[in-house]
Amino acid sequence: MAGDWIKMRCNLWDDPRVSSLCDITGAAEATIVGGLYWLWATADQHSANGILPGLSAKTLDRKCGVPGLGAALIQVGWLVETDDGLHIMNFNEHNGASAKSRAQTARRVANHKAGNGEVTQEALPGNDDGVSGALPREEKRREEVNNKKNKQKKPPAAPSFDPAPALRMLGVEEQTVTDWLALRKAKRAPVSKVVVDNFLREAGLAGMSLDAVLALCCTRGWVGFEAAWVLRDRQQGAARPGAPFDPTAHVNRNRPGAP
């Protein structure tokens, strides 16, 4: 079952983002890691794509007992909060059935390779000193058999990704979906799940909806988007009393991807 276990890195404790979460919330690493365990375990049991409908940052704070943890996770880029609920970034790379399958496969491959390196025979005749003797022919035969099996195995076909339904599910208007996908096609910029996740993350960091970000890109003809562009303009607008905020005035024309 998918909920039997979850994948967590051994060096998570020392991840700089965990340190940032501690600084933001004032909680210790053990508390933060415990909260992350609850979040990822809950998503593993109740979500197939890392989206937790109806769950808010405040709900996460109450469940984990860490005030401000939800907002802190959004700030470091591990979560995005929308009207649909909380979205765990890059969920399928680390959680879910596919990630577990990859982890188990990697462990089996490593154990198999380690086993092939131990083809020896203790105390061959004539080895009175008990030193093990290698069997190069047998090891070579095993290696040839393994290589033949690996060549016969066809790599699994990569699952296709349809961006339009994913964007609609994230609250993007139909016209915005059509215009943005047409813009990306005209620019010869494919739309993958990683691309959508990056836009969603930058939109959250900029405090804008994904629909607003994609509509802005369509208006300006941008292939990419970074939250830093909007945040910089907000800071500049705050330095000029009475100056209205213009989210389209921040374009750095020397930046790749900017018109």
What is the topological layout?
Blueprint (H helix, E strand, L loop, with lengths): L15 H10 L3 H18 L4 E3 L3 H8 L4 H8 L2 E4 L2 E4 L2 H4 L1 H21 L3 E2 L11 E2 L1 H17 L10 H7 L4 H13 L6 H14 L3 H11 L6 H13 L20
Helix pairs in contact: 1-4, 8-9, 9-11, 10-11, 10-12
Give the assembly state of these chains: single chain
Largest sheet: 3 strands, antiparallel
Query: What is the overall pLDDT average?
Result: 76
How far from one another are the termini? Answer: 49 Å
3D architecture notes:
The longest helix is centred in the middle third of the chain and has 21 residues, at 96-116. It is globular, with a radius of gyration of 25 Å. The chain is built from twelve helices and five strands. Among the domains are: 2-94, Orthogonal Bundle (Arc Repressor Mutant, subunit A); 163-239, no CATH class. Helix 1 (16-25) runs antiparallel to helix 4 (69-76), helix 8 (163-169) runs antiparallel to helix 9 and helix 9 crosses helix 11 (210-220). Strand 2 and strand 3 form a beta hairpin. Mean pLDDT is 76; it is low at 118-135 and 248-259. The protein is mainly alpha-helical.
Short description:
By secondary structure, the chain is mainly alpha-helical.
Keywords:
mainly alpha; Arc Repressor Mutant, subunit A; three-stranded antiparallel sheet; two-stranded antiparallel sheet; 12 helices; 56% helix; globular; disordered C terminus
